[in-house]
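Researcher: Structure prediction, please.
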Amino acid sequence: MSRYAPTRTRTDPYTGLPWYLCEKTRFVGLWGRANKPAAFENHCERVIETRANGWAIPSSFLAVWQFRRRDNRPDAVVCGIDEHSLIVGLLAGKLAHAPVFCVIEDPPFTDRYGQEMGWGRKQERRIRCLVLRTLLKACSGIFCFIEKDVLSELNLANVPIYQLMNGVSSQALEWLGGQRREKGDSPQFIIGYVGAINKRQGIGDLLEIFSLARSQTTKVRLRLIGPIDNDYSKWFEDKIHKLGLDEIVEMTGWLPYEKMLEKLNDCDVGVYCNPATEWFRFAQPLKICEYLALGKPVVAWDYPGTRRLLDRGRYGILVPPGNKAAFRDALVSLAGLNGCGAMQHEIHVAVRGDWSSDFWYNQVLDTLGSPRKG
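Model: Predicted structure follows.
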């Protein structure tokens, strides 16, 4: 469980998962960084901190052994996808005679294995896949907050996999409901991006796509909402200058959440053009949830995760990954639709109905056969 995620929705992997099974979590293993409290700790009966250091494994086993007493036994054990968490979780489940569930919020081995691997690295991955497959087959089920296709190579046909979905931010919906001023007619069409500004996020591709769109219509503007990495600033400035975009790309820097919403709400469309790494392909990006919460159509690469969030293109335009000309055409076509009013209305209705966080929360409870809480 991450200490750094904001409290967003019950379907958010960082705050919601234990609540699918019970009102309280009796035992939560947290990895290091103890200085910042986690919001979900307020719902926990007891928290045991497990540090990511040389004592992590023995301290985890000691905590589980102490937790074996009958008066502390849980209804279920939830653990992460890494080998250490699964081993500790299965041990806890065995001692407590409780079912063990795995939660997947990142692909296995995220960023560990690139496309080009030597023989040794390939064998390492193969062995780790075998270990994971063995451990996961001993679980009672898997909660997948990214696309479950990420597990296809592990061949887990007999293990129940609950496909979850990130809902839109409740805080963003509440903020929008308190706004009285509608975005007025403007000759400008503002393309919005929320998130870190660095090479990993595909910002270079976004700038090139925006430059192509500018060659088709001069009404488009680009607004980048988020902090820029220090070691990326020089490259970014040179790129902006080379493309002739010095005066038409706005950078806000880091903003508090509500200020970010204010800047984003003034945009016409949100974009997601992160590169086709394993993580970005299978993730359900939170930035898209922010766009949808404010009723913004989204133009995004057609990855499995973005396809689910945009309901196969009902709430935006899905573009073949890497096709910058197609991405440009999508932006230009939306810029010609007078603010994308019809699509915006459909998004507003959806995120308060069958595409809301509460809808997905109750869908999962129904799947598990549990009574609805709250």
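Model: The longest helix spans residues 119-137.
Researcher: Thanks, that helps.
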